[in-house]
Amino acid sequence: MMIPLGHGVVLRPVAEGDAQALTDAYVRNREHLRPWEPRRSETFFTLTGQTERLEAQLQACRSGRVMPWVLADGDRIAGCVNLNSIVYGAFASGALGYWLDAGYTGRGLATGAVMAVCRDAHERLGLHRVEAATLVHNVASQRVLEKAGFEVYGLAPNYIHIDGEWRDHRLYQRILNDRAPKL
Ligand SMILES: CC(C)(COP(=O)(O)OP(=O)(O)OC[C@H]1O[C@@H](n2cnc3c(N)ncnc32)[C@H](O)[C@@H]1OP(=O)(O)O)[C@@H](O)C(=O)NCCC(=O)NCCS
Hints:
It contains five helices and eight strands; from the N terminus they run E-E-H-H-H-E-E-E-H-E-H-E-E. With about 180 residues, it is an alpha+beta fold. It has one domain: Gcn5-related N-acetyltransferase (GNAT) (Aminopeptidase, 3-Layer(aba) Sandwich). The radius of gyration is 16 Å and the shape is globular. Bound molecules: coenzyme A.
């Protein structure tokens, strides 16, 4: 699966050989991502840390719990979109997380990637719903979700530990279809 997003960037599933490119991307974007992410350990920014993380992610992907994607510009990783916490049965839902390299923002790439991941969740994974949560002041991310057809359904106080504090989040969902679930 290789989905062109424009500007020379493709969306593809994360692959075994991506650990070095992921390390480079997280090192490059350490300050850019700090306000929007959990506190990261020093190991997180090393090849060893990213190799371990990637192995765990690929294992979770094989067992159907996670679908991890990267935005790639040649050998460079320009962002990530993960469909996490995938649950089947009567819920048939997954939770989105995403970020873009600081040098690639403002070109519609996150919106295109989120829309493509939703299409895959609908067509291939057979899910009913995708959810996402943003910090209340993350206007760029909220705009991405609105453009991709998500709607707000709540405000969760003290929801996720981001940049060193439990922070309130705005909750979004997109209903993908009204198909009955496989029970
Ligand atoms: C949020 C993020 C993924 C957006 O990526 P992107 O590729 O720039 O997104 P897009 O270009 O598809 O869309 C961004 C939209 O937000 C708007 N926007 C950006 N900054 C904004 C701001 N400060 N105020 C208002 N709107 C803003 C853009 O104008 C655009 O909307 P438009 O198409 O109507 O003009 C990126 O900024 C990022 O990685 N941020 C840090 C990590 C993060 O916040 N991840 C999401 C956690 S929930």
